[in-house]
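Action item from last week, closing it out:
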Amino acid sequence: MRTVLLVSEDDALGARLLRVLSDCSIFPSRTDDDALRTLRLTEVDLILKQVASPSGDLESFIAKARQLRPTAVIVCILPADGLTPDDELAVEGADFALLQPFTTPHLRGVLRQADEKLLLLQEVAALRTARRPVALDTLTEDTDAAPEASARDLTQVAREFAKALAAGFDLPRVLDLFLDAVSELARPSRSAILLAEDEHRQYRVRASRGLAPHLVDSVSLSADSGLPLWLMTEGRLIQIDEAQARATEVAGREIAREMAVLQAVVAIPLASHGELVGILLLGQRITGGTYNRRDVETLFNLASPLATAIRDIRVHHQLQYQQEFTERILQRMSSGVISIGPEQRVVMMNRRAEEILGMAAKDALNRDLRVLPSPLGDLLYESLSRGSSVTRSEIQLALRSLPLEVSTYPVMGEGAAPMGAVVVFEDMTAQRQLAQERRSAEQLQLLTRVVARIADEIKNPLVSINAFMELLGERYDDVSFRQHFTAVVGRDVRRLVQLFDKLAALVNEGDYKRDIVDMRTAIEECLVEMGVPELPAGPAAARLLTFTDETTQKLVTVNFSYEGHAFLVKGDRAMLKKAVAYLIWYLLRRTPGQDAKIAVAVSHPASEEHLRITVASRTAEVRPDELLAIFDPIQVVQENLIDVGPCVSQRILEALSGQLEVKQGRAEVTFTAVLPATHA
């Protein structure tokens, strides 16, 4: 440990130096008088003195510091300008000078040189001390040196120590009572107890008698060197005379310096479970002389119970802090939390659980879990008895029909059986109301869009029908007009019929006929109805058909093929033909040019129980994002009402126990329908 006296009025400079000297005991002083007062009471290794401009009595300060602490190294921190020749002459009395502004590496370099000089001075002093014999055993026997203590005194001392160890979990009171008992037994002029800080591995004064306040506030001993390391390694007490006798060793010099700084002559370890919990330091006796062996051995024997008590008190406070911290977290949680113990009794209920369930915690704590509303108690019992967990499950309380989202967990101990169970739940009422409001708003918005789309789809054919109807009276005798009227109006009427058929199929509950249908002949009839001329007579596994689609005015080439012999299914023949037609029309409308190529196939291998229908096109173009939502009528309707064909086809096939899928390969869009086959 290095002790540093920092003399500076500049807070920014002081903070910068403190960061560099983090491993030292720092005694800050703002004035020269405060610094000299500290030097009279404290062993200091290094003095950092900030020099103001003008420096004033710098020479006097350095002279007094040398007189009080001859072995201390003095470093003056000088301003950038403003020094007089007298000031420069006074600075020569210091060991090192540091000119502002300076960098951190420059500061570390000066401190390294100061440390090397300090080590050299200490080694020289140690060699001088080694020439003088030192008595190692300075503890006196109490037979001749002191009269026997009376039984009354010993009883009083024992009472004081018992009082200290029985002070409960109040650590400051335990330490104060123990130092009072030490004062009764050994009569030291000064005493202190240093305890370890777990986070920094530093030993600091936590209780003292007779020590200067600046020592109590500033001194810290590192656990990895000096006195703490020696006590931990050796496991016995040490006197300052023994440390000074080892002045030729670096460890001995460091121990002697640390004890001298704390004005102690005896250091006793407070060890428990192989750990150095603290250090008991004793100064000179108030009557002078040395401590007798009996008193020091008594203190050493009492140090172990004190260390165990300190360790237990710290563990208690740590557990208490963790419990309070956990309770505060639980009280602030937005979810309700209830836990039960192994006796199936409620041991914890947080504030949010009280609010959700509408019951006070005092009415449930330490009572059987059946006091909880069903099914919370059942879920907790299941988790406790079987060790099972439930994650984010929605339940409804029997009380008030309250919807909850629940998660349960078993609390496992060292054994295989759970030692408790926890349920975490959240009231879903607000979320459901919000979801319902959002769903209503979305449905209203969707309805608006659908109505607007239906109006737009109906308007286009009705405009042409209305225009022809206005001209019909004037040009009825015109044969060409009547033919054109029949073609256009008939096409638009069929378009309206298809549109209403699709809308009806979307909302149809699926109450279709269950007749036996030959799908090969049904598809052939569908193609004929779409515009294909009469099919060629005679059996053929594949046929190439062409027609012009009336709706899109595209030239369509259809490759119709089948595989197998029996293509019978149970269903509604008219609806099945519409399902196939809607798929073909969708692919036609997705073909950008005037020529469309469609492949329709029906197959029923003898080894399978399902019949497969395939409708594909190499000329249709469908974006991947459109393909993902192709069976979602909500998404499709918002774009184009005519494109709901695949949605309607899927509804029809699923109502007849079938399935419809779509996939996109290389330059090909394919619909695949699967229906259960039947026999005649």
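Closing note: Residues 151-317 form a domain with the Beta-Lactamase fold (CATH 3.30.450.40).
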